[in-house]
Amino acid sequence: LRFALQVRARIDGVPWCDNCGTEGKHTIKDCPYEVGREELEGEAQ
Questions:
Q1: 20 to 30 Å CA-CA from 32: which of 12, 18, 20, 26?
Q2: Cα 33–34–40 angle (5° rounding)?
Q3: What pLDDT is recorded for position 30?
Q4: Quick one: CA torsion of 28, 30, 31, 32, rounded to 10 degrees?
């Protein structure tokens, strides 16, 4: 979570997807690809 916040701060609020590496289109929560979704949900718990 800390890493994600650092990335978001560095790009000044532009949506960034740590899941597939897409910038400016969506975040990991909105990612159409399922890769890494389990890891995100695991951190939330």
A1: 12
A2: 115
A3: 80
A4: 170
Alpha helices by DSSP H, listed for 1-45, are: 2-10, 37-44
**Contacts with 39 (C-beta within 8 Å, 6 or more apart), sequence order:** none
Q: What is the pLDDT of residues 27-44, one digit of tens each?
A: 778 887 766 556 656 665
pLDDT at 8 over 60: no
Instruction: Give the integer Cα–Cα distance in Å for 40 and 10.
Output: 20
Cα→Cα distances 14→5, 11, 23, 37, 44, Å:
12, 6, 7, 20, 22
The whole-number average pLDDT for the span 1-11 is: 59
